[in-house]
């Protein structure tokens, strides 16, 4: 064993080599498989990006069609799985229920759990991608006290998720389309982010040769935390709190700067981005577009804009290189679409799924991969005697 160095949060430890996502945190660069996030955001679709992340190359038109058709054909849940989801506590947080449901997929599809069988891994990949939106929508409908809706295979992946969630009556066809397009873009922007907490979790769990389902379920639970994906829900709650204070942004920021308060500016800061988060720029523009269409100006969006402006003019934030991250504006969009705050992190999970799968598969094929087993520096008592 070489020298063991202390590295809390693995901030300076590369645990693997990866060909999936490139980030340059100083320059604000994000690329999936070499393609800049801005180009993918402008021109591709979520399923194209999912294929790219998982298989390494963009799909040809025939491949994309086949991939889409397979996903749609596998979207319906087995009857027993529906009953299982319906039996979960309806007031439980949707992320808790989502993690539980995905974990049970290893039992419902027991013949697709062998990590060493590439056909089984392909099948598990397909089932997870196909069914996560169905599961998520069912959990939402149950929580809202509404009848769950079955998938409609004739619709697109994202479009059908929006329909299964809201029942296709958001007001107008045009609005449905706009929302599906916005949702697609948000999913693309969340699809991968190299060794973030949940993806690292998926890899760590997968390193013991656990199933893809078990690993993804662990990733969902990691994502749920407020310092990670749970931040998108926390941002909305923070904005509502500030609105409750009469919109007094400055006294809220004063509280954040007082470390004793334990309050953080949610949606700000990032382990890797120390300049800006390229995803936040895309999302801010999308938010402006979507909210512009509402009849009245969106109070929380206005508040978020003001909060961002004040924070970026404050040396506390600039000295520490704290900028808005992917979660800062996503919540106001989800809210405008009609999603309750408790669903925000579920939407993040739908987006991150292809990234989790791509990393799990990459690790499985990596000859250098070993079981994840960090070291420690022991600082507890030296030997002492039980007998006094
Ligand atoms: N508000 C106030 N102060 C902050 C914040 C914040 N959001 N983030 C970091 N700081 C301060 C922190 O107190 C520390 O100050 P000092 O040097 O005086 O002790 C300094 O900035 C460095 O912070 P850190 O905690 O060492 O940074 P980290 O790399 O360990 O944490 C982070 C990164 C994202 C967890 C953190 O910035 C944070 O808690 N942000 C708020 C939650 C959030 O928005 N999370 C979403 C992350 S993006 C995508 C995702 O995963 O969902």
Automatic annotation (TrEMBL):
Keyword annotations for this protein, in alphabetical order, are: Acyltransferase, Transferase, Tricarboxylic acid cycle
| This protein's pathway | Carbohydrate metabolism; tricarboxylic acid cycle; isocitrate from oxaloacetate: step 1/2
User: Its family?
Assistant: Belongs to the citrate synthase family.
| Designated name of the protein | Citrate synthase
Keyword hit for Acyltransferase: yes
Query: What domain of life does the native source organism fall in?
Result: Bacteria
The record lists the catalysed reaction(s) as: oxaloacetate + acetyl-CoA + H2O = citrate + CoA + H(+)
Q: Name one GO molecular function term.
A: citrate synthase activity
- What Gene3D superfamilies does this protein's entry cite? 2.20.28.60, Citrate Synthase, domain 1, Cytochrome P450-Terp, domain 2
